[in-house]
Specification:
Two copies of one chain form a homodimer. By secondary structure, the first copy, chain A, is an alpha/beta fold. The first copy, chain A, contains six helices and twelve strands. The first copy, chain A, has two domains: about 70 residues, Ribosomal Protein L25, Chain P, CATH 2.40.240; about 160 residues, 3-Layer(aba) Sandwich (Alpha/beta knot). In chain A, helix 3 links the parallel strand 8 and strand 9.
Chain lengths: ~240, ~240
């Protein structure tokens, strides 16, 4: 937690918040902070600044706020991700959020196990929790939008053409002979398949609406490794 | 497991292995394979090829081997990593191994908790297990060398100058104004600090022997995210 994320509910009056729970624990155990200390804070979907501790008890901490910065620039990317297995989903959401992705679609694919769609981790409050961990890591406040699309074909045919309009549409495909472009100045729509990759039918459907298959090299990588690797290569 | 890794101990005669345990389970439950199926195999620190199943029982699987490929090219990098917390160490070793890192030093730093050095995950057999998971993922066979250096100053002063000789020596430092170079054609020595970063004294010590501090941007990232991001940017 490099930043304490605040929401409107935390305010007791203008420029003053009172925190309990996980954030209090962090202030006491990690910062080992005391009254007068200044900590990095950010308002959810708002500015960044400092919070000065005015009271600290075992039950709550009160901070007097001063906001003076805007959140960091987002990555110009829309991520289309075949739903990963739940324990990997958590790490991929955190990593994507920390790197500045602001829009993601979690989609179905032939190699996504049906049971993954029933995971309790897909509830909005759990997803927001993982995204917030990424924001706290990266000192960002702008919560990414994560959309779930459990049907591949209607998503690709009916919704995706509008999503990729005016963007460079790429699909990660380890056997492609096109290397992933570097340092692109464009807005990118980046599709990443499940473990084992998209099946040929899915690659064809994506290619048919304008996706270019690109590769990072001959090594198949895990989704949690390939997401930061591709984002870092592209931007 | 995109590749079944074999060691000399698995051989019953020339070009024939018998497997039990985790690899048998994988053949039966993930591949759902039967006699006659051909699976990707690799000999530890040796060539890749195919194994044809000749017998399959609940107790063991026998494969007839044919090797015909060399392992993928390694990344020209030496990774110097402040020892991460144990659960992160596992993922970082897997990711580094899957991306083709062949030499790593796990080093101490002011912000590395002392208890991390006592973790049972630092035993050679556990480290080799995590490295092998990365090799199986990336269809590689060449086991990386992982060296542990629990004293920062003697390592940097006495050993590191020889390590970085004829390489581009970079240290990841979020506040540096130099962006991380892209697509370098050089052999790189890449140092990555702990959560919270190297302290100024450590950056100075590294800079004094020739390390250039470089940054991936203003977002502090977790070690497990920054390792694939930096490797992908560099190569």
């Amino acid at each position: 937690m490099n930043l304490i994320l605040l929401s409107e509910n935390d305010f007791t009056r203008e420029n003053c918040v009172q925190l309990q729970g996980r954030r209090l624990k962090h202030v006491m155990e990690i910062h080992r902070a005391s009254v007068g200390d200044r900590l990095s804070v950010g308002l959810l979907n708002g500015p960044l600044g400092k919070g000065t501790i005015t009271t600290l008890t075992p039950d709550s901490v009160t901070l007097e706020l001063h906001f003076d910065q805007q959140p960091p620039v987002p990555l110009p990317v829309t991520l289309i991700l075949a739903l990963p297995r739940p324990k990997m989903l958590k790490r991929v959401l955190m990593a994507s959020s920390s790197m500045g992705v602001k829009r993601m679609f979690l989609i179905n694919s032939f190699r996504v196990e049906k049971s993954f769609w029933k995971s309790p981790l897909l509830r909005k409050e759990r997803i927001d929790e993982f995204l917030s961990l990424g924001l706290e890591q990266a000192k960002d406040t702008v919560v990414p939008e994560v959309l779930q699309r459990p049907l591949f074909k209607p998503f690709v045919e009916d919704e995706l053409p509008a999503v990729i309009k005016d963007t460079l549409a790429l699909v990660a495909h380890p056997t492609s002979l096109h290397p992933c472009p570097r340092d692109t100045k464009k807005h990118v729509t980046l599709a990443i398949g499940p473990e084992g990759g998209f099946i040929p039918y899915e690659i064809e459907k994506l290619a048919a609406i304008g996706f270019m298959p690109v590769s990072l090299g001959q090594r198949p990588l895990r989704v949690e490794t390939v997401v930061p690797a591709l984002l870092s290569k592209l931007f």
